[in-house]
Amino acid sequence: MACKSVDRNAFFLSMTIFGSGLMSCVFRVYYVKLFLDHYNISQPWFQFAQVVYLVWNAVNDPLFAYLQDNSEIVCFRSRRHSILYESPLYALSFLLFWFPWGQYQSHHWLIGVHLMVSLCCYDTLLTFVLLSYCSLFAEISKDLDYRLTLTRYSKLSGILASCSVTVVEFVSNGLDDFQAFQMCCIVIAFLAWISMHFTGKYVRTNPSYRYEKVTAMNKDIPESDAKSGTFGQPGKQLKEILTGDFIAVVATNFLQILHKEYGSNFMVIFGDQLIPAGDISDVTRKLIYGSTAFLPTVAVLCLSSVVSQYGYCDMIMWTYVINIILAIGMFVIGQSHTWILVAFFIIDRCLSSYIFSFFNLPLSDIIDRDQEKYGRKTPLSSSVFGYNALFTKPAVSVAPMFVVAMLNSYGYESLQNGSLTDAEHECLRNVMFNISCFLPIILSVCRIYTWSKYRVRHSHTKVAKHIET
């Protein structure tokens, strides 16, 4: 892409994805492994922390979304100001995971508190920043082609951000050099803050969505309506948003996040057990783990023109069918073929992350349709994405809770203590392989059903993009 052809607005918007991606890639790949294998957290504390995280993860999104859509405070209502002011705290919250609060003894209660506090703080700031990003994505333009342009820029930023996993893997030697890992995380947090700062300073949206204009509109609302809206408005907004199409998107997105988080959290753990050390070198193994962070983004970029031509609805459906075929094929072939297993891990990880990248599009279409249907002057962008998160974010906790409970029932905790017999270890590896094959099949069948209920198709409004000057 020539420098002169760079879209300034799309570039600055994508910097939030770059900054957030730097941190989230490392978070997803390492936090479960760190607390299970390095800190040696007990299963009850791990599950309790995940339950607290699940509840807070679900509750804070609609709460913050309503605040962003209805507040007259500039750091809440203005999307770019939310990113500008909250991004430093977001970067600091990322660092909470990687610095222990003392000399941890195995299964100590403080490890569980550390995990619980870190997860809640991190998700709070992530929610503030990424709700604002999603709202900016929807509010810059209603044109599908331009939204795909925004997606391509964001995916390019995501490719660069995903390299953080490869860098961390080599520098820390797979968490063996923990101090090097901590230093990498500090650098990543600083780069992430600087990147998101550019979005907060320079992104421009449709003039009708500017903070000053929205505030003026709110002042025109009759006082009686404003008072009645204090308690009634959230319920009214939820009723308008909760359509059959919205429920179909949310249900599919929930299952998609389950698949995505399972792959992010457990590929390294499963790969270490199922891929024999003698079959591939340590360098190759690190490259494989790192590649799964950026290859889904490459797929989005390569296929975005296909999505533009045939629509995201059909592309999503066919991807689920392919997922089922590949998983059945892998189960039939078996786990003894190392490179086929490696390819399956990479492709499954790519498919789960690739599809997740397009879920801003149906949600943006729902925002456009509801704004026209109810005659709103400004869209409820944050509320739509917030209520989507209310129902889908629990999947982030459900995935590790479910898989860890299943692994521990087959002796994974004993494996960490070195007390697992060879027969038990082989049984545990078989369980890991079966999960790798059957979980994608079950989730894909369910997603095919839920996605078939989505009816907002070919509804994109072709309008010229309006950029704030």
Question: Can you summarize this structure?
Answer:
Helix 2 (43-70) packs antiparallel against helix 15 and helix 4 packs antiparallel against helix 5. This protein has 469 residues and is mainly alpha-helical. It contains 18 helices and no strands.
Descriptive notes:
Keywords: Membrane, Transmembrane, Transmembrane helix. The chain crosses the membrane at residues 12-31, 83-101, 113-136, 156-174, 180-200, 287-308, 384-411, 431-450. The protein is mostly helical. It is 80% helix and 0% strand. It has helices at 8-38, 43-70, 74-77, 79-95, 109-140, 144-172, 178-202, 211-219, 223-241, 244-274, 282-310, 312-333, 338-356, 360-374, 381-392, 394-409, 412-417, 422-451. Mean pLDDT is 80; it is low at 217-231 and 458-469.
Structural class category: mainly alpha
Number of strands: 0
Radius of gyration: 22 Å
* Helix content percent band: over 70%
The largest β sheet comes out as: none
List low-confidence stretches: 217-231, 458-469
In sequence order, what are the helices and strands, one letter per element? HHHHHHHHHHHHHHHHHH
Instruction: Please give the alpha-carbon distance between the first and last residues.
Output: 24 Å
Report the total helices: 18
Average pLDDT confidence is 80
Give the strand content: under 5%
Element layout with pairings:
Elements: H1 8-38, H2 43-70, H3 74-77, H4 79-95, H5 109-140, H6 144-172, H7 178-202, H8 211-219, H9 223-241, H10 244-274, H11 282-310, H12 312-333, H13 338-356, H14 360-374, H15 381-392, H16 394-409, H17 412-417, H18 422-451
Helix pairs in contact: 1-5, 1-6, 1-7, 1-10, 2-5, 2-15, 2-16, 4-5, 4-7, 5-15, 6-7, 6-11, 10-13, 10-15, 10-16, 10-18, 11-12, 11-13, 12-13, 12-18, 14-15
